[in-house]
Amino acid sequence: MKGNQLMVTVLAAIVCTGGLVVSCSQEKEPSVKAKQEYTEKLEARLNQLEENLEDMEEKLKGEEAELTAEIQNDIEDLRERKQETREKLSELKEASSENWEDVKSEFGDMVDSLERAYQDMAARLES
Q1: 78 and 41 within one domain
Q2: pLDDT tens for residues 9-22?
């Protein structure tokens, strides 16, 4: 009887440990769906930024030449940075579970920076 109790205890420990390992790994690794949803949100933000830049260029048509040239240069700079960010998006889509959080954080920071730069330009144009 003692042998059976020991075996049951060992099996229970193995099952419990295995459950914990699965649990831990599931918490650390984002699901494919979660990764896809996150990248789609950020891609939508990049698309919105491009639309905003196009709208800004339209508004520039009626502005003075000096301001127009300055903001046009800023728009080109933002477009270059946006392209770099799009390239980073492919890295994010292909990121392994091990480096997902690092790439995700870096990419989110890049998009945030682009949006702030756009907002600064828009504020200058409005004033």
Answers
A1: yes
A2: 444 444 444 443 33
